[in-house]
Amino acid sequence: MFENLNVFRMSAALARYAGQQQALVAQNVANADTPGYRARGLPDFKFTYMPTGDAGSQKATRVSHLNGIQPGIATPAPVETGGEASPNGNQVSLETEMLKSADAKRAHDRALAIYKTALGILRSTIRT
Q: CA 3, 10, 100 angle in degrees (round to 5)?
């Protein structure tokens, strides 16, 4: 029942997005010395999240539906974030990856805060 609330769906989608971004940052850092490696990242969350209120688009209300979209479950495709290449062709900047990692942690913390706050509001309304 409560999993259908948009605030919980959005916070779960933001937490998944932050996890995917953190995984890409880790992959970029692991390949920081790989010749020819191109850094990858995800588009901003606001471009990847699909809220339920889109007018005019088909919606899938069950997983068994063949057409339509389910809100908040889009898996964004990684894009090259590119930058200036080093002499061996590698485009990973460790400083940039540190900033991306901090942004991902901040997004994950924000998702948890939204979830905890909404859960607290629900608990307080149920008690009364």
A: 140
**In the chain, where the domains are located:** 2-127
Query: What whole-number distance in Å separates Cα of residue 71 and Cα of residue 49?
Result: 8
Predicted confidence at residue 46, as pLDDT, reads 78
| Three-state DSSP string of the chain | CHHHCHHHHHHHHHHHHHHHHHHHHHHHHHCCCCCCCCCEECCCHHHHCCCCCCCCCCECCCCCCCCCECCCCCCCCCEECCCCCCCCCCCCCHHHHHHHHHHHHHHHHHHHHHHHHHHHHHHHHHHC
pTM: 0.73
Length of the chain as a residue count? 128
The more confident residue out of 18 and 2 is 18
pLDDT, mean of residues 115-126: 90
